[in-house]
TrEMBL record:
Protein's recorded name: Dodecin domain-containing protein
InterPro entries, sorted: Dodecin, Dodecin-like, Dodecin-like_sf
Native source species: Candidatus Amunia macphersoniae
Length: 71
């Protein structure tokens, strides 16, 4: 197997229903433009509050994908 290089980038997914949906949304959106996604690490979960109620769930992820120089 040849040596490989992977890039790590941060994504923030947002959902009105759950942190899981927020993370899923981030990955599915990123996969439409990034190839060969490998690992996602959830680094932070938070939420926004409006009028004393949870408005949105946010999941911050570090995602790694294979780096292809010049691509």
């Amino acid at each position: 197997m040849a040596d490989s290089v992977y890039r790590v980038t941060e994504l923030v997914g947002v959902s009105t229903s759950s942190w899981e949906d927020a993370a899923r949304s981030a990955i599915e959106t990123a996969s439409s433009t990034l190839r060969d996604l490998r690992v996602a690490e959830i680094v932070k979960l938070d939420l926004t509050i409006e009028d004393g109620k949870v408005a949105r769930f946010r999941a911050r992820l570090n995602v790694s994908f294979k780096y292809e120089p010049g691509a």
